[in-house]
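User: I want to check something. If I give you two sequences, will you return the structure for each one separately, not as a complex?

Assistant: Yes, each is folded on its own. Here is the first sequence with its structure:
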Amino acid sequence: MKKIIPMLVVALAIVSHTKAQMNIKTLPYPQTKKGDVTDTYFGTAVPDPYRWQEDDRAEDTKAWVIAENKVTQDYLGQISFRENIRKRLEVLWNYEKYSAPFKEGKYTYFYKNDGLQSQSLLYRQLGDGKPEVFLDPTKFSKDGTTSLAGINFSKDGSLAAYQISEGGSDWRKVIVINTADKSRVGDTLTNVKFSGIAWYKNDGFYYSSYDKPKAGSELAGLTQYHKLFYHKLGTAQSEDKMIFGGDVTPRRYIGAGLTEDERFLVISAATSTTGNELYIKDMTVPNSPIVNIVDNFEKEHSVIDNVGSKLYIFTNLNAPNYRLVTVDATNPKPANWKDLIPETQNVLGVSTGGGKIFAEYLKDATSLVKQYDMNGKFEHDIALPSVGSAGGFGAKKHETETYYSFTSYIYPSTIFKYDIATGKSIVYKKSGVQFNPELYESKQVFYTSKDGTKVPMIITYKKGTVLNGKNPTMLYAYGGFSVSMTPGFSTSNIILLEHGGIYAVPNLRGGGEYGEKWHLAGTKMQKQNVFDDFIAAAQYLIDNKYTSKEYLALSGGSNGGLLVGATITQRPDLCQVAFPAVGVMDMLRYNKFTAGAGWAYDYGTAEDSKEMFDYLYKYSPYHALKPAEYPATLVTTADHDDRVVPAHSFKFASRLQEMQKGAAPVLIRIETKAGHGAGRSTAQVINEQADKWAFMFQNMGIKF
């Protein structure tokens, strides 16, 4: 039994804000130079004094990063309880973590982390035999920052292609191995990005990538046109044949997959993050053409299964909340689609397994799951443990069981084994985290946004919490790209909850919780709705005495970083602490880097029209900053983030430090050998979370 390290201090002490801030020595920010770059949009001159920070290769940018990190670490190092929080997080994290198992060939595979291992290991097991390590990502690099970024097996399970990410980059390498002895097959593929691996028999596989930027930074350089390649085993990558895309069919995102019977190659092509074309190729017919099913980018569609020539297509065409349709592959155009599972008032998600269809509905951002046969006949509801989020349910057609996970803000993620024939679930792996759900409650409320729209929010806290306006509260949200914020357990949040804090997550417009209409209500020239929803959520918490301005922190990452940045520029008086993470902060230039142009469906671009420029310029966090008293802000980013390039955060932090007229600190924490978030080592995650909680409590006048 592992020794449990007790917390050094278990109670929070409330002290005056003035006293708390005086405990930290005030450190000067680095002297950040300003340039004289100016762009003109539709007759409006827009200064960009920190443009030089967009060059991550430049020596002055590197020097600035080092100087800012030193200021940040010096500040955090003076917080007396920071190390206590880090040690507590280590204790909380130190339990075995499992993924749901999946079957490939004769083996069952699963991921496992013993507790504090830098990365989870991939195991395999033959029948009831002893599990063995199949891949150990902790040995990919000495510092644990090279991660396993996905693995795909050939149909018979004898071959596998796995992707690795170095330092968190989206650029990947692909390594092919024989699963019997794990020996390598052929050379390593390089420069692969935003790609799955789709095996065709044991001959080779399809994958996607871009041409690597030839000039400038390979991390920040614009990636325009995706290309779908076929790699034949035993040949050089330079000989790979382009199947689709490139200059011939220019598309920004291209994905490919094969139906389970390997009859159809399915290609999805898109120019933005929403909406796609759909194509198929019949692999049973020599030299068959690629056939178009949907020829526009207006809606979303995917082939989720087939029975012979009958295709099952998941779509939101004429169904904002999605539906499942069928069509014969010989005449697959939308005019011939027939509803199998029609649209309902709840948003639909679909998976298949064991010859069944699992309809996974979202009802007010929580899960309802129903089972159907392949003819669309309803069989039964799947009983879930409580209100929360269920996911998984995928399996091959011949399998008799599948696995799914269930979680909520107070229900640690638990894996269930599900018998497809009987509809019965049993616990397969229960979480070993030190957390007693009986001590906490999680409730959903509906509050009113600025324009009268009702918005749901789930609020989680310890039972018996007194609503006196003095509870440290984290308000976390996203609000974009049709991403649904569903309930999920966080080990890090235990730090907040076990000390009387409150965690609140609203389902803002721009997300996918209520389908396409909800998403569109938070895009382009309706983006302000998202910020208004977030501000209204904070006001609800304050008005109902869950917290007050002095004890409220705002948090969000990526598009959520934009959310936090825009909110504090519009309402600097709203909160005490802000955490904009890996955010999109320069709304006039986001489309100039990596695949940023693909986000235009949600944001619009400054080049679209004068109206769109004016709208973006008004809320763009980097540009909207003006002299004011801003909350204590800890900006976080990473040097290998090649999705939302760190220049967004660099420029925003520099300008916020310039514009801060109050006493609250404005810091930036720049992780090294890390990217947009995925693949970070356990130590990196724990250290960042410890720093954030320490920064939050310190600036709320709270001590451990």
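And separately, the second sequence with its own structure:
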Amino acid sequence: MLAEHRRLALWLPVGLGLGIAWYFRLRHEPGTPGVLAWAGIAVLGLGWIAWRPYALAPRVLGGGAATLALGFLAAFWATHRQPPLPDLPARATIVTGRIVAVALLPADGPSVRRLDLADAVLDDPLDSGMPPLRRILRVRLRADDPLVPVPGMVVRVRALLRPPAPPSLPGGPDRQRRAYFDGTAGGGMALGRAQALGPVPGASSLEALRERVSAHILHVLPGAAGGVATAVLTGSAVGMKQADRDAFADAGLAHLLAVAGLHLGIVMGVSVAVVRLLLACSEWATLYWPCRSIAAIAGLAAGILYVALTGAHLPALRSLTMAALVVLAIVTGRRALSLRGLAVGAILLLLTGPADLLEAPLQMSLAAVMALAAGAEVTRPLFVRLIEQPGWWRRALRHIAHLAQASLLAGGATVPVVMAHFGTLQPWFVLANLLAVPLMAMWVLPLGLLSLLLMPWGAEAMALVPMGWGIGLILDLARMVSGWPAARLAVPAMPGWGLAIWLLGLCWLCLWAGRWRWWGVGPMVLALAVPLLVVRPDLLLSPDGRTVAVRDGAVLRVGPRPGSERLVEDDWRQALALPIAPGGITTCRDGVCLRDAPAAGCAGMVLLITLAPDDAGCPGVRMLDTLTTWKSGAQAVFLRSGGPLVVSDRDWRGARPWVLAPGQHGMPVLPLAQRE
């Protein structure tokens, strides 16, 4: 510890993350005494460091306690400054609101638009005269709606609204928590055509520019190539067919379609190289100007414009924050890719958005960048010796080794994150990325940027046509790799504690420099085995109590109507890594009986799962029905020798601000009190 005391600062974001995770694992919201206790721990920890700043033990213990408490308090503050989830009407209602964003949704037929409405007012008997919603309401328009929506327009539409969907099984994806922190109230589908109220504002300059760019691209590159080009240059992959998107996902190349750190790094890298080359053409600029810093700032400006053009999505904004820190390091003469810069960026991201720690994008970003920075530290001397030796082939070998190292480290560090959130494993991702990323970095995106510069003069085809050739190679690669044996393996979803073990082991391996860093490999190996060791439920009951699934060997039998709840069945398939198969539900096993109609037999029954609303059950036998799921959400049953174990979604999540009341009811939209 004394030898590595300078690396203790790298563990500050780890402490913040543990405090945030502690808060979100609670079953009940902490009261005022608990919050004051955590604040006291933070003050005492910082005070102990200030009292003995040069001693190692106070720095470790005090700093660890303080960062843990600060993470807990940051999560608590972020939770309680959000407005509550509203209670949306169960019947169709008239919605009037102001459009803040328009999104095109993928569809096999005509494109479908989704509107994000702010200050939405509901016109129904219960909500008439109530104040506007304080959250965003997402309404999907009909495919035949002729309205051309633009941000700022006030629209009125009849829609059927629904709150965020509850977890499909205990421990499953929590869409209500995601919506709570995203500022959304729920969504719905328009039942009629939308009507614009008042004067129609003109499209914003960025929105209009994005549409013009998409139109130019699709005019020159129709088909799949145009869809990929639109995705990387405007952030919208609507033009791609579902088969092509699936091929990218199966080959481990889905990140090439989502504008995030990779695309931003390529755009900024190309911009830096071009500006620095132009400055090097001037003898005066080379001798008297800080060309490296000027090029870095120009690259950051290009990155800001690119993020704005592609819609300023949250992953891109996170990557832009990290890129700004890299540019700051270059301007101030510090190392650009370093673990200290990553620690600063991680602290900023965790304090500004604590709930993002539980989502896949932030976990994948931090894990990948940490693995890249730590790997660069270890392999830097080897690459330096490779450059110093003569021979052009050595430089070529260095570039190939760099690409292979980046694909292996970034992809390997995020494998368990993909397993935990998506329940899949792509064994060929390293090979696919080794070939596709150089094509994207040195061919596709540079030509895409050139096409943007040529569009004002109508000469974009000079760059878009060869760009399409490169996209065609990437498409062929994705289709080929996705067709290989075991290209996409379904694995049981890794529980949260297993993912935490992996991330802590990865931090131990990457953040220390001595030999004891290798102790982190043990927890990482254990975490990879967790999905195979965890006990899976034998029966599942959907949140509405109308669908049940039984694990029958290597399949999951769903009844009574397979396919009626597509979202729930997809979550079940992903969590258990089993294919869905139709099957009858009237059966008994180990004292647990399923039935969809009232029956008289109750002999030997311990637990009854019924889908019949008028089933009276059996005397002295526990029953799971629609009333049970109305109160406590989805149910999971584990068959054990001592009797069945039932776990409900309410047991798993507890009573938290983002957990809706029984019946999936939120807070009524009432007028504010005078104090508020």
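Because they were folded independently, the notes below concern the second chain alone. The chain has a mean pLDDT of 87. Residues 92-203 form one domain.
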